[in-house]
Amino acid sequence: MNLRARIVGALIAAATLLVAGLIAAPPAASAQLTEVTGFGTNPSNLRMHLYVPDGVGSRPPLLVAVHYCTGSGPAFYSGTEFASLADRYKFIVIYPSATRSGSCFDVSSPQALRHDGGSDPVGIVSMVRYVQQRYGSDPDRTFVTGASSGGMMTNVLLGDYPDVFKAGAAYMGVPFGCFATTDGSSWNSACANGQITKTPQQWGDLVRAAYPGYSGPRPRMQVWHGTEDSTLRYPNFQEEIKQWTNVHGLSQTPSRTDQPQANWTRTRYGGTGTTVPVEAISLQGVGHNLPMGGMAAATIAFFGLDAGGPTPTPTPTPTPEPGACRVTYKMNSWSTGFTAEVTIANTSSAPLSSWALGFTLPAGQTVTSAWNATITPSGGQVTARNVSYNGTVAPGASVSFGFQATHTGNTSAASAFSLNGAACG
């Protein structure tokens, strides 16, 4: 059986379910999907369609929405809610189209799995840079999502281009590097069948090896999978969680588990709020036909594109008595960087309504990103402050945050912690 027959035979039924199951919500505004040509380096001859909502502001956010095998950019535009959500929240959407036989994206070749290595990822990033230059989109709010082949490509793009994408959401995908082949084939049956398992460290190393020397922040990741997926089987869901929690230096134990809908089980890693480093949603009894229902809206919330509303009124910051806090500081280091998980225990008898933890980073250590806190400045004597959802800490309770940093050889732990100006015990 030739490659085209294998790909189409494996995925055509699932793609049919996908199209049938998606909520078709084309935008009601006057904006139209437009094809763009001549957008830059495009080694695999991808096509580009662009949706720019009416009324986008200056430096708008940008979302890349990547289709499934046998699909196209225009089909993903008309069959998903991302364009109508773009109308509501005023972000631009790029819809790439694969043009090879089977209309799958290259997530398997050595070229595709390397930063600036060639193939489809290079063409998609050219589309992003075109929109950044032509429409002034915000590089700090550039995201990617996709389903099936597009979910696999979401994993690939976050691994290849952590400097381009700030977060991704993969529907029915597989980990970065899982589909890798060296024989010229673009189909990996062992991966598709959920038969490839690795340790978190091994999965994380595949991502880090895609862009040697990169030491900046890593994109946040949201993954979705149905338990009855018979095309890209459900074990890939846990392997993705292993990979991206390791990339962020996080524990495999969720910080929070809940059920936002009847058949959804959502786990969050590295925090409990909406924009955590890693979020995973398992859908009981669901097959290879995502996204559907309110899933696209949940992805937009994970990206932070639905943010807005009035600024809360500041409240006075309680100052605990000296010694009324305890700090746990755990590091995971590698050759040029590290991640740190920090837990603050409120050992006083009074609640905190906000917190600011001061500490000293050893020489040569520089913070590049943080989650569940803001950290300023990036080195030396720094202060980590709570974000909107985790300022309250009851007596006897604790709160956690984390950050990623580079180092020049000194991997010593931070020291001299103070909470709201009072030394911790």
From TrEMBL:
What superkingdom heads the lineage?
Answer: Bacteria
Regions of biased composition (Polar residues) lie at 250-264
* Classification via InterPro entries: AB_hydrolase_fold, CBD2, CBM2/CBM3_carb-bd_dom_sf, CBM2_carb-bd_dom_sf, Esterase_phb, Plant_Biomass_Hydrol_Est
From the UniProt annotation, give the residues forming the signal peptide.
Answer: 1-31
Question: Which SUPFAM superfamilies does the UniProt entry name for this protein?
Answer: alpha/beta-Hydrolases, Carbohydrate-binding domain
Q: Which SMART domains match?
A: CBD_II
Q: Region (Disordered) spans which residues?
A: 250-270
Cross-referenced PANTHER family, in alphabetical order? FERULOYL ESTERASE, UNNAMED PRODUCT-RELATED
What is this protein identified as?
PHB depolymerase family esterase
